[in-house]
Amino acid sequence: MNTIATTDPLKTRSRQRSTLRGKLQDALPQIVLAPSFLLTIVFVYGFIVWTGYLSLTNSKTFPSYAITGTRAYERLWRWTLESDPPSSWYTSITNMGIFGSLYIGICLALGLLLAILLDQKIRGEGVLRPIFLYPMALSFIVTGVAWKWFLDPGLGLEQTLHHMGWTSFHFDWIKNKDFVIYTVVIAGVWQASGFVMAMFLAGLRGIDGEIMKAAQIDGASSFQLYRRIIIPLLRPIFLSAFIVLAHMAIKSYDLVVALTSGGPGGSAWLPSNFMYEYTFKRNEMAVGSASAIIMLMTISAIIVPYLYSELKEKAR
Amino acid sequence: MAFLQISSLRKRYGSLEILKGIDIELDEGGFLVLVGPSGCGKSTLLNTIAGLEAITQGDILVDGNSIADLHPSKRDIAMVFQSYALYPNMTVAGNISFGMEMRGVPLAERKQAIEKVAKVLQIGHLLDRKPGQLSGGQRQRVAMGRALVRDPKLFLFDEPLSNLDAKLRVDMRIEIKRLHQTTGKTIVYVTHDQIEAMTLATKIAVMKDGLVQQFGTPFEIYNNPANMFVADFMGSPAMNLLTGAIEQANDGLHVTLERPSGNPVRLAIPARLQGLEAYAGRQVVFGIRPEALTDPEGADRNAVAVVENECLIEVVEPAGSDTFAVIKLGGKEVVARLRADARINAGQNVRLAFNLDKAVFFDPQSQARIA
Amino acid sequence: MSGHSQSASGSAVNLTRWINRTVIYGLLVFFAIVYLMPLFVMVVTSFKTMDEIQSGNMLALPQSPTIEPWLKAWGEVCVGLTCAGIKGYFWNSIKMVVPAVVISTVMGALNGYVLTKWRFPGHTLVFGLMLFACFIPFQSVLLPMATILGNLGRFGNSLEDTIGTSLGFGNPTENLVIVHVIYGLGFTTLFFRNFYEAFPSELVKAAQVDGAGFFQIFRRIMLPNSLPIIVVTVIYQFTNIWNDFLFASAYAGTGDAMPMTVALNNIVNTSTGVVEYNVNMASAMIAALPTLLVYIVAGRYFVRGLMAGAVKG
To answer: For chain B, which chains pass the contact test of at least 3 CB pairs under 8 Å?
Structure first.
């Protein structure tokens, strides 16, 4: 009896300690994940809220924290309608429309074409593939520098063709405020289309060979095979590539700066440039913040449904 | 008191109940096989014994002590996984001794233990290889070595043979049985293969939908199935379950099985089978295993109640050691198991012997055994 | 007779096949030339003298190749008012990239491990929130971050005044490390999560039965088998952080701490004096070399990283 009485408290104490340690052990995974999660919550979502808040103030050079309402958005809206002469915001968003649709469209088309060409049991595929893809490894700044030189009327392509005797050749888009955005498209496509090609190529290689054999036995020509069978099968790749390109297009900032320095009179601006200029150079912090929030909402409209369906599918 | 005791164990994921109250008792040195179709909860049950999944309710006792709240490594168990789960970055020796290393066993002692196990399983020449360089059978041995070296109170096997080809599976089955006989350890073994269950077990728990349908020795499970599910699941080819009608006649109870030809088979029910009187004039499910429905020459000589009847053979399947014949009876396709050299052809009328010693009856509604 | 017609139709098939192949190879070679052109012009120009550039053909090989522009770019070229070449900025980038890559990769690996092998209720939501962070336009966090970093800088200054050292608070390079770690976490977590998702859970269970704890399993079982995804993540992060311009110009846009990309942009867009195109191109090449080198050495992993970053979930 006596011994039991003495061991009893010891036992409970050791059990208590072990449960405390046990609890800590059980929570260890969450403890490890917590810093990353908190950083994300604060520095991504907290900062987005902060930016949203700033967009509702009249912050100029320095942040002010008195809410003054939606004046910044109203100004952006007014500028949206101000097409003649175009406001900087009007230029930025029309450029976004031109750049976004051409960049995504051409990248998809060119990427698919290159992938299909490379998939024809080509000799030297190992040499060609890296050639199409290497621009992706370069910084937008380097890309911009290279293309700026290449497209410069006095130095680059135009000059070279003049040297070769084609003196009537004229190509000055990079200095032309109406066309400068198209040079951004050219450089952007050059940089990203190889990556789209790699995605499509991976998709093509993943298609079940028996499906192709079956289609051939059914009498489909090569063209029909691609149009009716293969390209429809690549639908998920189109979606992934679209998402990646769309988000790269909206984020594009460096390329415009390095290639055009903003273009004549800011004619090559995208919303990302608008935001940077208004926030840091023109001391219109509230307007800059409002434009950032509009950019975020545009991307979210594309990304959130995509991520939601992807994660939901995974969870099933 | 039983060595392994599982009492009213429940496991819930949110609103989904995977295990709905499991009670199992196993004596020391026993070989318990958990068998059932996929999704029946057998692997979950094994994982709760291992401590890899927490239980919602109930208790698990080993040797009288509850292990339900212990970490897997503190339960004195060893486990062999379906994919073997060999650490690909470690050598065979490293794999076998990793657990000892984690427990802080000195190097010299570890080496000794590895050598001992390697000798038992004849994997001495593999000790310096990585799992990627081993064949399926060798991996299986190493996985068993990792369990053996621990010398645990309880061995857990999670479908250990399902990744092997048919021939190797038979070899390893024998090996596991021999291991059990020589070491005398208590084993819990999960499989969906009823032949493995029959050959290895001292006790079988047939599971379905999170419940134990029947718990007993292989003989009991095979010959006295508790319900239609167990009868159908255990045995290959499966037991024939056909609809029949019970009739009370002057010369005792009979069961009548319809035939497409319109000439029903009428079988006298032996006096051994009690409790069918209440079903007179009603439909029941009549169960007879293929080996109890055979050619008269191949029928069990010790059987008491053998009835012969002429049946139309629809399909013949010679399987080498036996010949299977398919007939139409009681609205079902019924398989009969004949001697290999029984000369029969499809379309013939052949006399078949019904061994009613082995016949069982089920209630068509509750699916439970009547007699 | 029939044999004759067969061989005739056979040669027609051969002819169309030959035309097809020619068109395919022709297109491929054409595109290859187009894709290589800017790099070729950059390299060629960087080895030319200014005289040759002004008089000669952009596409011509240098007549008297010189490494003078490279030396000048490395050691003498002016960035703003400082004329000490880009070597200092090159090292700035290295000092920023290495810690940022290491820290974000380690954290991503741990996150991926927890999110696949130690799941808890709500793990999908946590992952979803971290994943979405990969896609936000960084403009939407640019300003608050600038404010926080400014405060860190003031805190560093007051530390310096009181205890004689800032302990690194407010150092622009360290600021950029913090920024790149935080905004790279989504990507590194994604990479490791997707990799560990396919990593057999039975190995983790076996290790648990063997008595290994949370960190032991990570160090002894997970990490030794993660080499491919570590390489992918490191390459992806290295390329992204090295090439970043937005954060670099916002938080270290002036002074001695600016990274390579900002310095290059300053060199190229400077409006004072004669523009030395050969030096510009050499500078651009130096800025491009680390990532190009990575691409050439480990192209396979580079592509895998891009794909993993592209195909989510």
So the answer is: C
